[in-house]
């Protein structure tokens, strides 16, 4: 299957700082990537759809000014959590489509202290 | 009504038994269907996809699709403790919709 990578795999930051998470499609080009958040023992929550060369589409209730998404190339999308707070601590997972199939990155565990 | 519905479980089966996971979807026009496995603390991994009515087999896994009844299922034969995970059903209907997942425990 297709490979999607994420970096970093885990990050600890202080409250009020910003954190950037990278998502790359390694062996295919992805015009669309997706960002999910998952809290412990809960289901995946789609945060936004990242479109190469255009603005991201955010799901209802997701603050676009807090979760900045940049999809600058066909293989890279970034999610920046700005002014992070402890309630932003979560597992952030990106995914990308190749054809009708969607593949997930390994996830980034963010802890805000 | 949710786009994709799954029984959250937990489902427990003894080692060696067949585990049966079910999923229903609401959009009759959906064309592609997927099963993901998610281990605790890990991201989902695509294990099966099916596009046509009927059965599709891959090793110990069989996906079954019935578009008329709008359900898709996953059978795991000879279940192993390593199959213990949450299984997510997903449907591609203009966009991806995920179920909330079924937790499976295989008891040694």
Keywords:
heterodimer; A: 113 residues; mainly beta; 7-stranded mixed beta sheet; 4-stranded antiparallel beta sheet; B: 108 residues; 6-stranded mixed beta sheet; 5-stranded antiparallel beta sheet; 58% strand
Mean pLDDT of chain B: 94
The arrangement of helices and strands of chain A along the chain is: EEEEEEEEEEE
Rg of chain A is 13 Å
Uncertain segments of chain B: none
Describe what you observe in this structure.
The complex is a heterodimer of chains A (113) and B (108). Chain A has 113 residues and is an all-beta fold. In chain A, 0% of the residues lie in helices and 55% in strands. Chain A contains no helices and 11 strands. In chain A, strands 2, 4, 5, 6, 9, 10 and 11 form a 7-stranded mixed sheet that branches. In chain A, strands 1-3-8-7 form a 4-stranded antiparallel sheet, with no helix packed on it. In chain B, the strands form 2 sheets. In chain B, strands 2, 4, 5, 9, 10 and 11 form a 6-stranded mixed sheet that branches. Chain B starts with a strand and ends with a strand. Chain B is globular. In chain B, strand 9 (85-93) and strand 10 (95-98) form a beta hairpin. Chain B contains no helices and 11 strands. Chain B is mainly beta and 108 residues long. The interface between A and B is medium-sized, with 16 and 21 residues.
Provide a compact summary of the structure.
Chain A has no helices and eleven strands.
Task: Give the helices and strands, then pairings.
The complex is a heterodimer of chains A (113) and B (108).
Chain A: E1 4-7, E2 10-13, E3 19-25, E4 32-38, E5 45-51, E6 57-58, E7 67-73, E8 76-81, E9 90-98, E10 101-104, E11 108-112
Parallel strand pairs in A: 2-11
Antiparallel strand pairs in A: 1-3, 3-8, 4-5, 4-9, 5-6, 7-8, 9-10, 9-11
Chain B: E1 4-6, E2 11-14, E3 19-25, E4 32-38, E5 45-50, E6 54-58, E7 61-66, E8 71-76, E9 85-93, E10 95-98, E11 102-107
Parallel strand pairs in B: 2-11
Antiparallel strand pairs in B: 1-3, 3-8, 4-5, 4-9, 6-7, 7-8, 9-10, 9-11
């Amino acid at each position: 299957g297709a490979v999607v990578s994420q970096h970093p795999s885990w990050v600890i930051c202080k409250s009020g700082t910003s954190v950037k998470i990278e998502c790359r499609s390694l062996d295919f080009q992805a015009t669309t990537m997706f960002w999910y958040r998952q809290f412990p023992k809960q289901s995946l929550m789609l945060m936004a759809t990242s479109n190469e060369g255009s603005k991201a589409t955010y799901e209802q209730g997701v603050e676009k000014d807090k979760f900045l998404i940049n999809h600058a190339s066909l293989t890279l999308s970034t999610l920046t959590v700005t002014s992070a707070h402890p309630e932003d601590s979560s597992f952030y997972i990106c995914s990308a489509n190749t054809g009708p199939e969607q593949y997930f990155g390994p996830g980034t565990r963010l802890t805000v202290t | 009504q949710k786009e994709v519905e799954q029984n959250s479980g937990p489902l427990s089966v003894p080692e060696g038994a067949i585990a049966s996971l079910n999923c229903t979807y609401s959009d009759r026009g959906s064309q592609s269907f997927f099963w993901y496995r998610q281990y605790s603390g890990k991201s989902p991994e695509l294990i099966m996809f099916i596009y046509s009515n009927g059965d599709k087999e891959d090793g110990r896994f069989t996906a079954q699709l019935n578009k008329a009844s709008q359900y898709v299922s996953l059978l795991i034969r000879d279940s192993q403790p390593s199959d213990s995970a949450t299984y997510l059903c997903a449907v591609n209907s203009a966009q991806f919709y995920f179920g909330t997942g079924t937790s499976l425990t295989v008891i040694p």
